[in-house]
Structures are given as structure tokens and as C-alpha cells.
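We examine the record.

___
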Amino acid sequence: MKVFQGLDASDIRLSNNNLLLRLLWQHQVISRADLARLTGMSRPSISAIVAEHLDLGLISEIGHGESSGGRRPVLLRFEDDAHLIAGLDFGASHISLMLSNLRGQEVEWLSVPAQTREFPEQSIQIAMDLLKEGITLARRRSRKVIGLGIGVPSPIYSGGDSLSMHPAIHPKWAGLGLSRILKEHVSIPIFMENDANLGALAELWWTERQSRKHLLYLKVASGLGAGIIIDGKIFAGAHGLAGELGHTFLGDRKIDQSPTQDNLNSMIGINNVLAELKVKVGQRHPKILHRGALLKEAFETGDANTQDIVRKFIHRLALAIANAMVSFDPELVIVGGVVPDLGEEILNMLRAEIPRHLVWPELRSVPLECSRFGEKQTALGAATLVLEKMLEDFELFCEAREQRVRLKEFSLG
């Protein structure tokens, strides 16, 4: 028989620290008296914890607020610019780094072309170079980078003590423990997540959608991925594979076909659609996310056959979205990747078709909106992941203060 062991004093103190940290961040400006009222904690306990946060530089005292009958309270402000967070995006055709403050506001943006699927060692070297440059830029601002979030275009693969891209769809990454390699070379906390999940996290945190607790974010780029938010948290599934809609199918399939054939990735991946349209990407739209503009142009200027191909793309995408909505029952569907560049005419076609495939009136009334952050969506989501983890664990901020950010020279050889 298991005997329940209650929380000791240090556990309670950490729990209270975490609670106050989140409240300070959420309210931005608040008094000790209001913290006591909101939490039910004693004034001495509040003062002791606030002293720790003041010592870390996470908050400051900014003067007196209005009196409600007694002495005027001292106001505390959460210092958004106390530290910086790095978000790293391993895109299909680029690697990007965003430095943000503790309110998700961009401070620096760096991005370079890269073929991450085919050249993993080179991609890791590029990422290390970007991190080195980002940390240098942070130091010039007299700021410390206290955490790194990483977004990858695949499910997260857990191999032993390391996380990386899944070798089932990124075979050249097999045996390369991305998080382990980075932890050996970068002395800050590191967190990793799928790019679509991070896109959903960015939408949840940094738009007016915070009140929505069940979101479905769809990234349409080289393939189709979904980020699922349930009860305000990323839903990754038992094996981290939730939302891999590009590996689902429409219609009948031959029983002996490979699961990588005739899936949704092959049907609505933007490069495959442009190839069917015989549109050359050229130099005007080198980045995948910008290729929605090429599809829009082809539809507006093309012949009847071209327009039929675009309508077929929209039909398949509408079916995929309807299937996902039935599976997860979201309050809101957000589409990103190439979709925001398709133009209102094509977007209206998509909005009109989705309800036709839904039985339930509740789902037919769910709004479909475009994502807000373009090519910076995943990197912002990666930085947000770090912030989310740190606001849940005050000790991470304490560790960040003690450590000196170090970068070792990178070499797989």
C-alpha cells in the first residue's frame, strides 16, 4: 500500500513562487496587497517571494498606486526586458532565429537559406552560427539569452536521452540527437517541439485568442501539419504524432502502397501543386511560405485547366480541414503557411466549401482565420515555448541568473 507523502515546506514555497510569477507576468503591474488578495497567501509570504523576484531583476517597484483607504500600495512591474529568449526554426528551406523579450516582442531576427532534410550536419552548423550571432547581439544590448526553443518540421523523435527530427520522414537525421548536440555546445535550457504545434502556441499567446482554449492551427507548406491546442495546452498525443495530417489519405488506396504515396502531403504540398501547374518558382519566391502568391497569380491569370487544378487543391484542403475539425472539435481554425498569401477570392472558396462537408451546425459556425506571423511563426512559437516553461518553473529563472551563457565550437567530426 502506498502512503501519501505531503508536500514539504520547499515544495510549497516553490509552488507559491510559481503562482506569483505567473500572476506578476499576467498583470504586468500589481501591488503586494492585490497579490495577497488573489492568492490568499499571507502578507509576509508575499513579501518574501517578491523579494526573490526583485533580486532576480524580474520585477521592479515603480511607485505608489491609488489608496483604497489606507496607505498607498507600492506597485510592482514585471520587467519584460530583463532577459531575452531565443527561438530557432529548422524550416524545410531555411533556418531562422528570433530573439524576443519576455512579452514575445521581437528584438532580433536572423534567417538564412538551408536544406535541413538533406544536409543535417550543415544545418546544425548554420544553427550554431546563428545562435552565436544572436548571443553576441544580446550582449551588445546588455541582455542575457536565458533559454532556447527549437521548432522542427517533423514529429519530435526521442532517441535515448535526446530529441531530434523523426527519422521516419527525415532519414538522414537518424542517429543525430539534435537536442543532445546543442546541449553539449550551448549552456542554456533547451526545449523542442514540432513546428505546427509552435505555430498554434504563438497564436494562442500573442493574439486576442487567449480566451479560446481549443484551437486548431494548420500549416500548409511543403506538406500539411496541424497544431492542436486542447484546454490551452499543446496536444501532442501518446507518441508526439498528433496533428500529422499530411500522412492521412483521401479516398481508396491500394493495399500494397507505401504510406508515403498518395497521402495529403503529396496532394496539397505547395511544391507539388506548383509542379502540377508547371509554375517555376524561380527567384521571386524562394521561400516556401511565399509560394502561395504564385498559386494566387496562377489562378488569376491562368486558363480553365489551371483554375481547375487550384480548385482541386482547395477541395482537398477543405476535406482535410473538415476531417480535422470533426476529430478535435475546435473553437477556432487558423490556417498558416502559404494560405494567407492566396488572396481573398481563394480564401473565400475555402471558407465556403468547408461547411458543406460538416454534419454538425456547431462545427459549420466555427470561424476560419489566417495566421498573423508569416515566416516568423515557428520561431516566435519556439521562444514562447521557453517562456511557457519558465513561467511554470521559477527555478529555471534562478538557474538562468547563475549561469554564464557559453558557446563551444561546433564539430561533428
In short: The chain has three domains: 9-78, 84-198+377-402, 210-371. The chain has a mean pLDDT of 89. Residues 304-328 form the longest helix (25 residues).
